[in-house]
Structure formats: structure tokens, C-alpha cells
């Protein structure tokens, strides 16, 4: 069973991530188990998928969180793909889902994910990480603590340092 | 200047530890070259022609003498005993070993310095007026705002991997010495009629292969909203800037494609959500940062120092240096002194370890231990008493730091070029040196007046050739190095992009070409008219005619696509 990090624990990754067929057709949703569908599929099949309660949604970097909007709070899981770790669009998507759309479920990063991006990801609201399978997941976990202090407001620490300095 | 507290220090120390670990994993094969590259770039580390190149941040150009001594020690210990000041007020080492870089960073951290975000697709070092805080024409000291932006941009989690590099400049004076119109974001700090401080925000300026002057998208922004507004601009860029083509990835391309009006509207839409949020600046924070930049305890002088005024009259060499290298101070009896890093025969911006140590001593002796780096690749002593100027000049001459040529033709702004940089199409330093050699007569140079000559070894335009009155760009044509000349660029309030004069020239033609251009200028000049005014008046044609007259039909091979 593949692994992932959720809330600093290494656990089994039981989810099935669906991708469209090559012709763009939506894949069939398995009857049972945690499944993650593309945003477009969710929007098209929202009524039946919402009824299940174990369906998550995944975003490509150019998917717009505005399209999901208020439906975000219904979902148990949202995953965001990082095709390359240098593509920072997913950072903005994460923050928007957390800070603007009130998403409180599992926010998962997958794709080109390894030690050196986990700190930024955490601060943008991610709490789950599918570390690339050729990278050491135990080593990656340590990346969460690369920095213990930061200047900006973020999901992990909404109060920027300048407000905490004054309070302290 | 700003002094770290234990929290600022902790962030820099943790960065050193992180980079030590990343370097170790790279050398152990746990990080591939492709993975390590963006990570090391965000720490200012390039792999160049001969060795890694490390770019050390000098936030908004402010340096203390104790920092300069550490820069000297690093140059001596880990490099070939010199450093190079860049056009972004930073310092580069051209010869460090990769294995030594974590230790270099640790030594820098001990004097509150680092190499964070000096390269890579992230928010770079914020730059400003080299005379901020002391300029006679200053409206608002931009440094507290630069520091507030430095802290906001350091390890910003959302904007760590932007489509492309991102440069912010801040100006607070009447004359714009920070070139804000050619930055991704340019901030003008102004006062309204009621005397309140606010910002004008320009976006989408830049040089590179598509030079564009920035557009004003926010004519008045209240100070407390600075960071939430910057967050909104960066978020729009991070989400919608092009990532499919690195040559189209700067914010200027997005602003142009959307139009500045539509881009500004999109920012406003985003800002509605962020405005008045946690990033809203508090008066307490503005005060905390501002108090690091209050005026020093100046000695009180009634006016100009009589001895200085007399020496300026009596001593021609001193008078000339004062005219070119001394800038008017806001405090009576004081002066801002530019130390020229353009000594003939030395690459523009280069400075040796011994010179750095001597400069640190001079800063302690004459300028309250403080220095500035300028984007014209010179250093500044900001707090010199007029009565000390003559003695300082004598000391600078002995150190070869007193070329009285600031702002003149031979004060060439120049990137490292093909001698060092792996991006360059052509060498730049030998051309700069050849031009300096051709124009070595100080009387003549002085008579020519202010002429900005800027040179870049490739389209990345690190030498800001587009805004030089005379711009030189190195281009590659079928593997050989050629030089394209442009005229009419300028920086500052009326910033404009120079126009290309015609087909490129071979390296050995360049001093001759510049001389012909200067001769056209001299012939057409009325009185003390500056070069740029003459160009505006007579246009390109006379220059073109002279430069190409009688030129044998030896043309460069067909220009490559990007030239």
C-alpha cells in the first residue's frame, strides 16, 4: 500500500484518484471507497457525488477554486496537483480554499512533492502530502520543521510576525 | 539601519541549516541536478562558466562597516580576493566552491546577511535610491518601507515559485534614482496635499527582451494597506502569469496582454478580500521599523564649510571629483560621497578584499560606519562632513576609488558578461575597458557632461542597456560575438527605452563606434546641452549616418531570432 503524510503521521494512501480518459471522458466512479475526482467531473456530477460523502476533488494548477466556491465545505478531501514543484499556482489555490472558501477537510498535495516544499505547503494550508515514491518519506517529514518562524500571515499562522511582536 | 532581533536572526539561521542539508543531499545524490537547481538559485547560487557564483543580498543597498569586513574576509578565504557589486545593489562572488557555500552563508548570518532570494523565480531583493535618508530632494525616506517589504517577501509561502523572477523598487525622492518604472512593481512614496504619506503603485515595467515602462495602477494607496495590496498583485500574477514560455513569463507580459486597466481591476477584485485582513500594517509596526532609520546625531553647521569651499576652488582635481562624485546632502555641512568602482583597467563594480577592508575603515572614520551600494555599481558614504572631504579624497585616490567620473561616459554600468556568466551571448567587460581606455582624457570626459553608457552581455539586460543614453547589447550570431548599439534610453522620472541604431558591430569596432557617436553629439551640441537632450533634438539619423558612413559592407551573419 502506498503511503502519505497526514497531520505529520505516515499512513496508508487508500484513495483512488481518477483521471479523465484520453478523449476527455470522465472515468467511472467506483461504487465504494475514498475516491478523488477531477474538478470538472465533480461539477458535472455534483448531485450524485455529494450524496456519497466519500468523494474528494482534485485540482490541476489551472483549475479555478472560484468554480467550486461554497461547495468546498461539503467535501472531506481536496487534492492539488503539482506537476512540477516549481509551479506555485497550487499554493494560491490552497490558500483560497482555506481562507476564502472555508474548507476545513484534508488538503492534500500530490505530484512533484518532497522534503523541500513541505514547509511552504503547510503554510498555504496543506496538511497531507503524497511524497514522490522515489523520495524518502521519513526524511521528507523533517522538512515540515525547516522553519519554525515566519513573517507573513498564512493558514498555519494567521497572525503575521509584526502582530505577534507587538503582542509579545 | 535595520538591526535584527532574535526572530529575524532565527529565520536566517534556519535558512543556513536548510541549505547545508540541501547541499549535502545534492552531493550525496539524493537531490538531482534538476531538483537542486531551483533550490540553490533561491539562495543566490548559480553554476557559471568556471565555478558557482554566489550572489549575496544587500537589502535596499544598505551596508554596515562590520558587514563589509566580513565580505572582505569571504572574498579572501573562499574566492580570488574580490567581489563584484551588481546592478541590483547586491554583491557577487565569482569563484566559491559549492562545498564552501553553507559555511559562507553561516559567516554572513553572523553579521545579519544572507543570500535569500537573490536569484530564482521569486521576489528578489527590493532596491531603492542609494541616497535614501540623506538626499536633498527626498520627500519620504523609502527605507522603512523597503524593510517592511523585505520581511513580507522573505519566504512568502504563496509566492515562492512564481512564473518568473520578480523585482520591486521603491523611490521617495523628486528625482527617481531607483528606476521604479522598469521594475515588476515600482512604488513611489509620496505625500498628498494634507501631508499624509501614501504610495503610487506601478506594475509591469521591465527590461529584458521586451522592455516596457511600468503602468500606474494605483494612484494612491494608504500605507497600512501596502502589504495586502502587494499580496493581491502577486496572487493575480502567480495564478495567471504565463508559465509555458520563460520569455513571456514576466508580469509585464500579463499586464500588457490584459491591459493595465484590466489587470488593475483584477487586482482590486482580489484586494477586496485581503484588505483590512491580518496583513494590514499597524502603526506600531510602522513605528518599530521607522525608528531604525531615524537621522543620526548630526553636528550642527550653519552652512557650507569654508575650508571645503576654498579647496574646491583652489584644487582642480578635488573640485572635479566634488562636482562628479559628491551629492548634495539634506543636512547643512554634510555630503554624500560616491566611491567609484570604475577605475580604468578594472571590471566595473569589482572590488578587492583589501579595498573592502579599507572602505570599511573609511566608513567608520568618515560616515558613522554606514555605506550604500548603488545600482550604478558604485559605493556611497552617506554621512560625510564637508570639512572631511579633502582628506577623504586623498585617501580614496590612494585606494583607486576616486575616479571623478560618476555619471560620465566612462561610469559604465556593465554585467559580468561572457567572461563569467553562462547566460551571456557575448563578453561585456573587455568592451567596457576598451571604451574607458579610448576616453581616458578627463578634461574631455568632463566637457562631455552626463552620458549614461550601459552594457549587457545578453537579452536578460542585467546591465540595463535599454535605459542607457547609449546602450550596448552583446548578441550571438552563429557562434561569434557582436554588439548592438541603441541610443536615447534614460532612467528616472522620464524613463524611456533606447532605439537600436542599426546592424551590429564586431568587438574591435566598438571604441570607434562610440567615438563617432560622441563626435556627432559634440558637433551638434549647443552650449552645455546634455547628450540625451541633443539626441532628442536631432534624432537618430545623424548618428546613424556617421556611424555607418564608409563602413565596408562587412555585416554580421544573420541575426539570431532573439537578437
UniProtKB/TrEMBL annotation, chain A:
It comes from the Bacteria. InterPro entries: UCP030820. This is DUF934 domain-containing protein. It comes from Jeongeupia naejangsanensis.
UniProtKB/TrEMBL annotation, chain B:
It comes from Jeongeupia naejangsanensis. Residues 53-110, 342-398 form the Nitrite/Sulfite reductase ferredoxin-like domain. InterPro entries: NIR_SIR_4Fe-4S, NiRdtase/SiRdtase_haem-b_fer, Nit/Sulf_reduc_fer-like_dom_sf, NO2/SO3_Rdtase_4Fe4S_dom, NO2/SO3_Rdtase_4Fe4S_sf. This is Nitrite/sulfite reductase. Signal peptide: none annotated. The keyword Heme applies. The keyword Cell division does not apply. Keywords: 4Fe-4S, Heme, Iron, Iron-sulfur, Metal-binding, Oxidoreductase. Residues 119-273, 411-547 form the Nitrite/sulphite reductase 4Fe-4S domain. It comes from the Bacteria. Belongs to the nitrite and sulfite reductase 4Fe-4S domain family. It holds the Pfam family NIR_SIR. Gene3D superfamilies: 3.90.480.20, Sulfite Reductase Hemoprotein, domain 1.
Amino acid at each position: 500500500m502506498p503511503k502519505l503524510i497526514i497531520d505529520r503521521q505516515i499512513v496508508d494512501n487508500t484513495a483512488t484518484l481518477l483521471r479523465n480518459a484520453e478523449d476527455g471522458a470522465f472515468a467511472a466512479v467506483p461504487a465504494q471507497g475514498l475516491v478523488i475526482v477531477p474538478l470538472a467531473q465533480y461539477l458535472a456530477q455534483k448531485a450524485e457525488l455529494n450524496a456519497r460523502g466519500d468523494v474528494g476533488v482534485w485540482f490541476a494548477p489551472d483549475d479555478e477554486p472560484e468554480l467550486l466556491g461554497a461547495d468546498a465545505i461539503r467535501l472531506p478531501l481536496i487534492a492539488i496537483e503539482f506537476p512540477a514543484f516549481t509551479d506555485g499556482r497550487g499554493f494560491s489555490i490552497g490558500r483560497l480554499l482555506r481562507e476564502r472558501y472555508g474548507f476545513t477537510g484534508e488538503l492534500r498535495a500530490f505530484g512533484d512533492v518532497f522534503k523541500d516544499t513541505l514547509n511552504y505547503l503547510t503554510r498555504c494550508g496543506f496538511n497531507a502530502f503524497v511524497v514522490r515514491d522515489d523520495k524518502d518519506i521519513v526524511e521528507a517529514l523533517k522538512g515540515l520543521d525547516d522553519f519554525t518562524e515566519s513573517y507573513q500571515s498564512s493558514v498555519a499562522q494567521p497572525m503575521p510576525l509584526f502582530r505577534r511582536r507587538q503582542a509579545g | 539601519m535595520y538591526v535584527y532581533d532574535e526572530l529575524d536572526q532565527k529565520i536566517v539561521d534556519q535558512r543556513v541549516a536548510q541549505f547545508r542539508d540541501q547541499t549535502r543531499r545534492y552531493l550525496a545524490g539524493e537531490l538531482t541536478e534538476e531538483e537542486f537547481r531551483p533550490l540553490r538559485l533561491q539562495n543566490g547560487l548559480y553554476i557559471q562558466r568556471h565555478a558557482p557564483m554566489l550572489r549575496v543580498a544587500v537589502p535596499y543597498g544598505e551596508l554596515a562597516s562590520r558587514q563589509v569586513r566580513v565580505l572582505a574576509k569571504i572574498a579572501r578565504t573562499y574566492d580570488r580576493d574580490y567581489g563584484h557589486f551588481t546592478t541590483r545593489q547586491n554583491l557577487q562572488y565569482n569563484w566559491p566552491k559549492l562545498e564552501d557555500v553553507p559555511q559562507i552563508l553561516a559567516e554572513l548570518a553572523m553579521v545579519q546577511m544572507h543570500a535569500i532570494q537573490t536569484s530564482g523565480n521569486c521576489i528578489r531583493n527590493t532596491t531603492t535610491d542609494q541616497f535614501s535618508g540623506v538626499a536633498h530632494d527626498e520627500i519620504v525616506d523609502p527605507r522603512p518601507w523597503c524593510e517592511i517589504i523585505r520581511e513580507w517577501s522573505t519566504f512568502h509561502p504563496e509566492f515562492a515559485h512564481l512564473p518568473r523572477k520578480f523585482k520591486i523598487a521603491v523611490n521617495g525622492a523628486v528625482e527617481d534614482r531607483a528606476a521604479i518604472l522598469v521594475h515588476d512593481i515600482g512604488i513611489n512614496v509620496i505625500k498628498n496635499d494634507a501631508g499624509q504619506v501614501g504610495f503610487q503603485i506601478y506594475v509591469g515595467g521591465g527590461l529584458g527582451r521586451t522592455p516596457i515602462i511600468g503602468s500606474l495602477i494605483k494612484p494612491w494607496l494608504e500605507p497600512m494597506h501596502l502589504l495586502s495590496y502587494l499580496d493581491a498583485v502577486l496572487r493575480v500574477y502567480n495564478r495567471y502569469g504565463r508559465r509555458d514560455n520563460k520569455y513571456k513569463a514576466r508580469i509585464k507580459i500579463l499586464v500588457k496582454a490584459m491591459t493595465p486597466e484590466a489587470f488593475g481591476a483584477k487586482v482590486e477584485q482580489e484586494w477586496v478580500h485581503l484588505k483590512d485582513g491580518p496583513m494590514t500594517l499597524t502603526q506600531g509596526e510602522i513605528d518599530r521599523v521607522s525608528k531604525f532609520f531615524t537621522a543620526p546625531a548630526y553636528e550642527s553647521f550653519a552652512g557650507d564649510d569654508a575650508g571645503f569651499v576654498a579647496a574646491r576652488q583652489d584644487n582642480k582635481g578635488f573640485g572635479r571629483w566634488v562636482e562628479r562624485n559628491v551629492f548634495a546632502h539634506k543636512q547643512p555641512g554634510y555630503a554624500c560621497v560616491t566611491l567609484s568602482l570604475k577605475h580604468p583597467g578594472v571590471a566595473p563594480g569589482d572590488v578587492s578584499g583589501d579595498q573592502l577592508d579599507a572602505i570599511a575603515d573609511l566608513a567608520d572614520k568618515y560616515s558613522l560606519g554606514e555605506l550604500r551600494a548603488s545600482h550604478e555599481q558604485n559605493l556611497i558614504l552617506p554621512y560625510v562632513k564637508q570639512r572631511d572631504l579633502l582628506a577623504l579624497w586623498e585617501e580614496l585616490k590612494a585606494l583607486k576609488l576616486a575616479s571623478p567620473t560618476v555619471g560620465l561616459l566612462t561610469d559604465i554600468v556593465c554585467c559580468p558578461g561572457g567572461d563569467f556568466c553562462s547566460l551571456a551571448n557575448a563578453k561585456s567587460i573587455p568592451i567596457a575597458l576598451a571604451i574607458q581606455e579610448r576616453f581616458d582624457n578627463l578634461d574631455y570626459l568632463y566637457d562631455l557632461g552626463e552620458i549614461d553608457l550601459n552594457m549587457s552581455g545578453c537579452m536578460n539586460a542585467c546591465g540595463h542597456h535599454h535605459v542607457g543614453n547609449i546602450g550596448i547589447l552583446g548578441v550571438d550570431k552563429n557562434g561569434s560575438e557582436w554588439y548592438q548599439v541603441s541610443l536615447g534610453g534614460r532612467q528616472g522620472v522620464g524613463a524611456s527605452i533606447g532605439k537600436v541604431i542599426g546592424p551590429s558591430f564586431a568587438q574591435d569596432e566598438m571604441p570607434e563606434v562610440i567615438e563617432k557617436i560622441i563626435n556627432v553629439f559634440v558637433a551638434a551640441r549647443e552650449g552645455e546641452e546634455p547628450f540625451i537632450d541633443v539626441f532628442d533634438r536631432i534624432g537618430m539619423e545623424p548618428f546613424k549616418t556617421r556611424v555607418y558612413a564608409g563602413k565596408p559592407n562587412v555585416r554580421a551573419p544573420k541575426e539570431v531570432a532573439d537578437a
